[in-house]
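Annotated sample (chain length 472).
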Amino acid sequence: MEVRRRKLQSEDEDIQESEHKSRFKKSHPGRRYFAVVALLGILFLGYIAIAYDLKPVRLGSKAIDTLAFSFNLQKPFYVVVIDAGSTGSRALAFSFHESIIGGNLILDDELYTETKPGLSAYAENPREAAKSLTVLLEKVKGVIPRSEWQHTPLSMRATAGLRLLPGHIAQDILQECRKLFEDSGFQVSKNSIAIMEGTDEGIFSWFTVNFLLERFSVHNPCGTVAALDLGGGSTQVTFSPTAAQEKKLDGHIYSVNIFNHNMSVYTHSYLGLGLMAARKAVVTHGMNMENVNPKATIEVRSECINPIVSAEWSYGGLDYLVKGPVNGAHRLVKTQNFAGGEVNRPIVNFKECLRIIEKYVGRIKNKPEGLKDHEIYAFSYYFDRATEVGLVDPFSGGITQVSEFQNLAKDACDYPNTDQPFICLDLTYIYVLLRDGFGLEPTTSLYLYRRINRHELSWALGAAFNIIQNGL
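Output written by the structure step:
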């Protein structure tokens, strides 16, 4: 996958051109010939069974691959990608094999593991930042045979958390991580560790979703889905526009080669509009943050926090004590007991909270025109917050509408919730971002999932394909 400089070549081209993967082509010709003959024989037997109305048999290319893989006729290979996000670091170890028919790359399995906090929380101690990744590397080593470590590419891309740090601090953290990786035993190059551009993050996420949904079989913009990724520090919107939509979009259009077919893709990464970055901006609304002591806990009061709530929160290397307003709103509500009295319940002033968030989201100038006309898959914090309030199932995901985030935000703002002190703010922000920032209608459907076919929805799979087909 090439974004400006890089290219996601066809999988056949990858097998021929990717130098570091050439070893997987060195299987003995006689062994490959035997495997093909054996499988053709199985297909012939299947045909005979069908022709004579014996037990129904269906053997497609996937079944053939599965059978060949089970007989150890194909050797797996691995790619490890570390997603160094603003709130945590995640390691994904992917296992692939080469299809015996067509030579395509087949994703077999993956390990997903994470640790918190993110690297940006160690701004004052780069060595501790690198040390936080050791637990991830140990788990990865547990699923990849030791003999394969030296052949397994290991890559780390840091996202908005490090993008938001001063350049020299971010580079110090990356340098310590590079030292750790060079001693890991995995295949590492000078380009293995870097801060990822928002463009890559968006397109890799979009690739992951559409690949797992098998939407690349027909190279048509109408056949692919849009991907909304809400991270901690930034958020990405990516889709393949029609020719008419492309004319309305103000830049941010990239030509991406997907399996030897060029597609126009719109992607925009909005730095500072991730959920945690927006939360910080909302709770510190109206405060002067330039002269704060980075080593002291910063007390803030916000209209988007219930008056009786007091919550500790850390983000971007700073510690906060977040409280509701001094003279917060209250509402008389009937009690549910037999006495039938009323209580003066503390609530969030939803209109005031909404106003503050609308002002923050209003800074979006380049809106993704045409997004609402696409089938939209939303993940990361979109999915997390939706599951926390019962909007979709945490295991299977589901489909909802934009308006449901508003309805649940209003409900959340009417109850003091010490277990989820930011839920009113977060849900309100998501609703405003979708409505005002991205121009979606209240009735626009959202497909909220964390996994598709047991695989995580993230940019990491797209990055893994890029590594395989273009090198580290």
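Annotation: The first strand starts at residue 77 and ends at 84.
Annotation: The longest helix spans residues 29-51.
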